[in-house]
Amino acid sequence: MAAVAKRTSGRLRRRRGIVAWAFMLPLVVVNVLVILGPSVATIYYSFTEWSGLGPSEFTGLENYREILSDGDFYAAMWHNILWTAIFLTAPIFMGLLGAFLLSQITRFQMFFRIAYFIPYVVASVVNAALWQNILDPSRGIGSALASVGIPFLDGVSFFGSERLALPSVAFVNNWAWWGFVVLLFLTALQSVDTQLYDAAKVDGAGRWQQFLNVTLPGIRPTFVFVVLLSIINSLLVFDYVYIITRGGPAGASEVVGTLLYKEAFERFEAGYAAAMALGLSFVSGLIVLGFIFLRRRGWEI
Amino acid sequence: MGRDSISRRQFIHRGGAVVLGAGLSSMWLAGCGGGSDSGGGQVTYWSNLEGAGPQDYFGKNIVKPFEKSNKDTQLKVTFQPPDEMDRLVRTALQGGEGPDIVMTPGPAYAQEYIDANLFAELDDYAGEYGWDDKLLGWALDLGRVDGSLSAIPYQLQTMLLYYNKTLFEDKGMQPPKNRDELEAMAEELSGQGITPFAAGIGDDPAAIEWFPTVFWNHYSGPEALYGALSGETKFADPIFVGAIELFKTYVNNGWFGGSTERFFSNGYDAYHVDFGDGKAAMNVEGSWFMASAADYFGPAANNDNDWDWVPLPPLREGVPPELYELALGSTLSVSQRSENPDGAAAFVDYLVADKARVTEWMAAVPSAFNAPLPFQGGDFPSSMDPRVERQLVSLSQATSEGNFGYANWSFFPAKSTVYIQEESQKVLTGDTTAAEFCSGLDEVFKEDRKEGLVPKIIKPAGA
Prior knowledge:
- The complex is a heterodimer.
- Chain A has 14 helices and 2 strands, in the order αββααααααααααααα.
- By secondary structure, chain A is mainly α.
- Chain A has a two-stranded antiparallel sheet.
- The longest helix of chain A has about 45 residues, at about 1-45.
- Chain A has helices at about 1-45, 60-70, 70-85, 90-105, 110-120, 125-135, 140-145, 165-190, 195-200, 205-220, 220-235, 240-245, 255-265, 270-295, and strands at about 50, 55-60.
- In chain A, helix 5 (about 110-120) crosses helix 8.
- Chain A is flat and about 90 Å long.
- Chain B has 20 helices and 12 strands.
- In chain B, the strands form 4 sheets. In chain B, strands 3, 6, 11 and 12 form a 4-stranded mixed β-sheet that branches. A 4-stranded mixed β-sheet of chain B has the order 8-9-7-10. A two-stranded parallel sheet of chain B has the order 1-2.
- In chain B, strand 1, helix 2 (about 50-70) and strand 2 form a beta-alpha-beta unit.
- In chain B, helix 1 (about 15-30) packs parallel to helix 2 (about 50-70) and helix 1 runs antiparallel to helix 16.
- The radius of gyration of chain B is 21 Å and the shape is globular.
- At the A-B interface, loops of A face helix 3, helix 4, helix 13 and helix 19 of B.
């Protein structure tokens, strides 16, 4: 009797396993075709000289050696680091502040939530075109302000200046991004136990102390998630830079994403671009590993 | 080589107004002949035409008449953004797909596809359709690799000096005929608060290549360029360095676009509006500008101004006074994987080889259908803008008389072209010197040459 029950239980387990795999199979197939396949191909091509057309020639580590002595790659990577620094500060600060202020109001909260979120769902091409017009040195906000007696932005070429191009593009991207950060933080804030605020008030904590000692610890997992997302997005940034400046002027806003695009599709160096992409993925992977390491060390991430 | 609002690869803008007038006559013309023994079945073609007007024109006046006279062939035309065309074609062909008729951005790009054995040889079709007798020899030669024809150069272009005719008449000025006149005029216009040259690469930084093209041809001269392109001399020679230094000086003076920063940020529409409104006096641009000039001058632009063009003046003694850069906006090839190569070749022939038909289309949509044909005055219908006609005849005559130069995007290999697009910006910002830039180009060009990627070069007069 026990043996029959054991056999039945074993069959059930196998059947459940088969059913589970049957449900997962479509996703596995999609992942193999869309992610694993191209990833393996990218790794292979990174060891070849390949124009992107026709056959490739295996060259071993030559592409990687070339990257190590490529000044353009280092310059682009430096711009990615600057970009990361911008996105780890401005949108997170603005997101926290916006979410905190929104959590304090009840009237018009939905209106502001929608208003902040709209740029995030608008296509990057549209956002970019909008800001290109607003920041145009001849017809944009600078000349409009000058016409009413505020001349300090008159003629400033935000996207044409080597000094301003990268932060200006980052500003446009931030404009689209920070509303999403607000919503993430707002959702996290709403899950913080209100009794904790009451207890803090009883202990005599002011607004700032409540924020530091109740809010921040309460939203830490979301905070760390936003930080991780910001770093990875900053390393992979492409669209706004490509649309607005294409890496110019004179490479002043070039990031690794736009550089490898040019290598692959303009210089016909698809193998080299694959190596560059893997280098970027390697850096992203290191950062994710760093977070996993911290989590294992007891951080609440 | 993405370039591209109104770049040379996006020159086919907003042609609707011009298109309407020419539609009927062209349909009638297209109905006369053009039939062939093309293979039956579908032929796919990806076109770089932009704008509803030109695209409608293409469907009504080219596709339909072709299908009418080639009853077994159905054309399936897809309009792709010019900026993205090369990337889309490359991805599609690499994946075993793509159109039957493949358009590339120029001979240097076509060569990459030919090396990868992705294009069919067209020599038999050249014999069948008589292309050697009909098309310009130098253009056909650019599509030949190792003696075999695989690409038909298309959309002929050149660089010109456009000027705001109304502004010039108001100021009692004449277009400059040499460097002294040009610089004196630029000083005077700047002093009056008028930007001498409308310019900017904000929409497409790669468009900076127009300027090294112009300065190398009109300062260094076509003979020097021929020497460097054929490997006899180096781009590091002072004659090329001097040309780039002059370009830098003009930009840093604010003569191009108003200031160096504005040169980098001005978009096509913005600087063309300034040109049309008379805030800028001249414009150094390719012949493709004629396709959209009506948008910036006259009633459509709410001004009473008019435009005209002259050849770019020589910037050094010894350079021919009337010199036209040879440039191609694209090439046409038949995919090696095409299941209907006969039908594809028939449509290529239909697009490029019949002068009467092509001139009708050229009159309707300026610059879009410039086939490599030997044109003369009188070849064009009366509906054609005389300024466009003069340019086409001048360019055509230049190839027979030898007063031509070389555009970067047609005669330099892809890596050298990208180097020029990227690194010449650094000269303007002072991050590198003209000499360093030219030495770097030497290195890149040497590599391209070693790999056999330099398109065939034809000799100018005197070389």
